[in-house]
Automatic annotation (TrEMBL):
<keyword id="KW-0813">Transport</keyword>
<keyword id="KW-0496">Mitochondrion</keyword>
<feature type="transmembrane region" description="Helical">
    <location>
        <begin position="204"/>
        <end position="225"/>
    </location>
</feature>
<dbReference type="InterPro" id="IPR002067">
    <property type="entry name" value="MCP"/>
</dbReference>
<feature type="repeat" description="Solcar">
    <location>
        <begin position="108"/>
        <end position="192"/>
    </location>
</feature>
<keyword id="KW-1133">Transmembrane helix</keyword>
<protein>
    <submittedName>
        <fullName>Bm2246, isoform b</fullName>
    </submittedName>
</protein>
<dbReference type="Pfam" id="PF00153">
    <property type="entry name" value="Mito_carr"/>
</dbReference>
<feature type="repeat" description="Solcar">
    <location>
        <begin position="202"/>
        <end position="322"/>
    </location>
</feature>
<dbReference type="InterPro" id="IPR018108">
    <property type="entry name" value="MCP_transmembrane"/>
</dbReference>
<keyword id="KW-0472">Membrane</keyword>
<keyword id="KW-0812">Transmembrane</keyword>
<feature type="transmembrane region" description="Helical">
    <location>
        <begin position="72"/>
        <end position="91"/>
    </location>
</feature>
<keyword id="KW-0677">Repeat</keyword>
<dbReference type="GO" id="GO:0005743">
    <property type="term" value="C:mitochondrial inner membrane"/>
</dbReference>
<keyword id="KW-0999">Mitochondrion inner membrane</keyword>
<dbReference type="InterPro" id="IPR045315">
    <property type="entry name" value="Mtm1-like"/>
</dbReference>
Amino acid sequence: MDVVKIRLQQQAHPFVKGTCFLYYNGLMDHLCTACADVNSKEPCEWFARPGNFTGTMDALFKISRTEGIRSLWSGLSPTLIMAIPATVLYYTVYDNMLCWLREKYNQKSHWIPLVAGSSARLVALTIVSPMELIRTKMQSERLTYKDIGLAFQRSKAAEGWISLWRGWGPLLMRDMPFSAVYWTGYEYLKANALQRFNQRETNFLISFICGAMAGSVAAFVTTPFDVIKTHRQITLGEVETIKQIRGHNNGSMKVTENCGCNTVITERRDMEIRSKRSFGIMKELYEKKGFRSLFAGVVPRVTKVSFACAVMISSYEYCKLFFKKVNSL
């Protein structure tokens, strides 16, 4: 689902139009960014992946058919490597901060899980952000670890080590509100469920249902920031490739677009694939693709996140209760 979600979001990626050829005066190097025949039914070899998905199931079948079923698990290795430290940090910081705030302030204050959740997410995502970047890049297109390494080298040479945290801002804007909404909703739903069923402690079923409901709402609300994060991270290596080609000469770059019988030549100092500010990307998506583009991939995102939240929180609560009983013996 994560691969499908990223591919759906990538469709609106503000890359150069499909009928463009980039060339540079001086040596007149050229770079083809699309298929030569725009009407061809064959997949574009430059991208080597399907596009123009109409929905979640359409993307699922096209990716499987074109790239193989294994491509749906792209980025699994960095995901697993990232999941362990991220989850341990996240839940540890959240639980400790939640207990500390409840002891210091009112036990029933609704802002406490909001602050605790946001703070825990800030710590966790800052540490694992480079692995998140690798995962997103691998899921956005069919790449090997060698290709990822080359992209990192180009990015590091152009921007330094800070390039490893590309997309950290949008990631922060997505995950901190997500955690705030999720934990506030989860603690509220859990408290009401315990009161309704007259229970002192939660159980697996209550945690599972409350986690799924809170996760669904939080995932839907923060989808626009997830779209922006994806757009920022999949540009890894693209900007640097253009800069390297342009660096062979000091001339200005030109873009040629074929529009029927006319050829329009425009000079541009900055490419469309240039890294943009988060709200600049949001504005561009809204103007070019409409409001729906900000919620691209919302179905697979909500499906994946709600189930993941349900499984993680119910397992976490169950283990807490289990070890609490063991330690009390």
